[in-house]
Amino acid sequence: MGEAKETTYREAVREAMREAMKRDERVFLMGEDVGHYGGCYAVSMGMLDEFGSERIIDTPLCESGFTGAGIGAALNGMRPIVEIMTVNFVLLALDQIMNVAAPLLHMSGGQFNVPLVIRMATGGGKQLGAQHSHSLEGWLAHIPGLKILTPATVQDAYDMVGLALADPDPVLIFENALLYNEKGMLDTQAEPLPIGKASVARSGKDVSIFTYGISLFKALEAAKTLASEGIDAEVVDLRCLRPLDDETIMASVRKTRRVVIVDEGWKSGSLSAEIMARINEQAFYDLDAPMERVCTDEVHLPYAKQLEDAAIPQPVKIVAAAKKAVGS
Amino acid sequence: MSEFVMPSLGADMESAVLMEWKVKEGDPVKKGEVIAEVETSKGVIEIEVFETGVVEKLLVEPETECKVGTPMALIRAEGEAAAEAPEAAGEPEAKSEPEAPPAEAPAEEAPEPRVSPEPSAEVRASPAARKRAAELGVELSELATGPEEVVHLEAVEAAAAKGTAAKPEPEEKAPEKKADEVPKEEVTPKAARKKEAPEKKAAQEDAMRQAIAAAMSRANAEIPHYYLSTPINMTPALEWLEQRNAGRGIRERVLPAALLIRAVVKALEHVPELNGFWRDGAAQTSESVNPGIAIALRRGGLITPALLEAQTLDLDGTMQALDDLITRTRSGKLRSSEMTRQTVTITNLGDLGVERVYGVIYPPQVSLVGLGRITEAPWAEGDALCVRKVMHATVAGDHRATDGRTGALFLDTLNDLLQNPEKLQ
Known about the structure:
The structure holds two protein chains of two kinds. Chain A has helices at 9-23, 47-51, 63-75, 94-101, 104-107, 137-140, 154-166, 215-228, 246-256, 271-283, 305-311, 315-326; strands at 5-8, 27-31, 56-58, 79-86, 117-122, 147-149, 171-176, 183-186, 199-202, 207-211, 233-237, 240-242, 259-266, 292-296. Chain A is an alpha/beta fold. Chain A has two domains: 7-186, Thiamin diphosphate (ThDP)-binding fold, Pyr/PP domains (Rossmann fold), CATH 3.40.50; 199-326, 3-Layer(aba) Sandwich (Rossmann fold). In chain A, helix 8 crosses helix 12 and helix 9 packs across helix 10 (271-283). The longest helix of chain A is centred in the first third of the chain and has 15 residues, at 9-23. Chain B is α+β, with helices and mostly antiparallel strands. Chain B is 29% helix and 26% strand. In chain B, the strands form six sheets. A six-stranded mixed sheet of chain B has the order 11-7-2-4-5-18. Chain B has helices at 86-89, 127-136, 153-162, 175-180, 190-194, 197-222, 235-245, 256-270, 315-330, 336-340, 404-419, and strands at 2-5, 15-21, 28-29, 34-40, 43-48, 53-58, 64-67, 71-77, 124-125, 150-151, 187-189, 225-233, 276-279, 282-285, 291-293, 295-296, 302-303, 334-335, 344-348, 367-381, 384-398. The radius of gyration of chain B is 26 Å and the shape is elongated. At the A-B interface, loops of A face helix 2 of B.
């Protein structure tokens, strides 16, 4: 354990990449505007000067091309970090991700791992309209062969870059765009919680709120409100959407017996649906009430702020769902 | 007021059909009195009431199948005030079927009686509440406060803590409500069963087979058996019995089977560790010796009704009790206590020529005594080789409860008694 200092989520990601690049010369970053512009969200600001244009590579606007190049580099012994500007653009790289990176280990009979890391910004709330506000991490969590990380805290924003680079297989990191400016404590020497482990962000006994990413903070805020009304909510930060940490989820269900799932994806066919299904399979007889969900309304996100805010999960909706779950 | 519920006449029984009430509403009953006959997969059995009082209300019609635990009657304890609604007490009809609707309600709008508390099948309860209620024996229908109300875990645990849900407080509830509360799910009209009459016998035998299968699987899975066997020279006992029977009328004669039961019972009094149960990880000996006597039924199947309090019976008493038990077993008139209170099992397969019986213990009992054929066999006495009537007695013991030495002591005692049969008077 080292000393914790306050920093922003953005700086934590940058610091993690810088550390990795200093430690391991195979690591490099490529993506749209990551070099001269310093990244669309300024995550890689200053890294071009520090590491040079061979390791901080500005790519053409072609996600399938540079993601494919990342896969090739990974197969040839490099440790690429591919930055995709925002989650909606990952759709252009989906063929490379789903048809090449994810199944190659399987198709090669276990011969070829693809140690590729793809980072991208995700989520709504920034008034970026219907094409730049998606939360598609739940979609990508459908694909075997991938690991899906969703850092919410500054510590995880830092730790997960290292965890992803250390993993022999493709790892996708979803950074919520609204979190880049958020501050938190970072201990760069702390032992990271491994991939596949959820963490209990707030312990409680009356209702379990499962969530990830930016919704973690909305859930914690909701828990505060609930506490003032005598409801002791447990908030679980899933951290990793694939693989899901069933053990921690079920332990919490068995403790509180009431469940709220907060997922910024759309409800139909969502990650929240997957979690509900697992709880149903593994902890049905521990439930004392129907499970509740707070998801994004099934609309393409509006540009207007009040409409966008109304469409995505908010603390007030989480409070209402938790009260319904506990029957008060 | 208390509910008389369908008793469990063995761990494997799930339900039985009420055949006949032996009492009417208003009749006084005494603890132990037979108040009904029910038909189980093991035959017709008389069931006894557990408390003294007055039959307040009969809740179930004959020819109805009731699951174990289904309330069948209300018994008012001695000295307890009669229910507040006397006209209801005199109205035996449970409102379980639609009746002529009241004038203001057209028939088609009244498929159900208007006063219809939720039967348990329709209680809305959470999975956790249902699971816990089953564990704690709490009746969920007692906790539902309305048709739309959901029973949660907390209510179940609170009820169990108070200890009231399983035994509702009758003072607060009119008796006719009780009648309605017979859970519909658990009551199948006999009419539905009658259609299956041709298959009924087969089904019953199958049910008995299933019951035996369940008990024996459990026994072999859970009980570490040990087996001991010893040959016993039966000549002294049989000669003694023959002399004793000489000059007696046929009715007063004692059969060797009764002598053997008497000997086993007396030996168990000397070695009480083999007479009792293994429950909750501990051996319990029973003061009463209630040997379950394995009796084959003519229609197939086998049951082991208890010869109750056999330690109080002398030899003639044992013979009479055995005769009575076999007669009632074969005519299907056993009492519930005879089906549930066995402390040990005796199996005699000698009539089929079997030499040694290695039996499977019926849980939670801890031993089974097997008696083989009595046959003329070479027998050494001192230096002489002679022919004697010889029987192999075996004991199967639960090694959790006793050790082989206990079983050996039992067989030795049994042998000793049979060499000195006058001790068995």
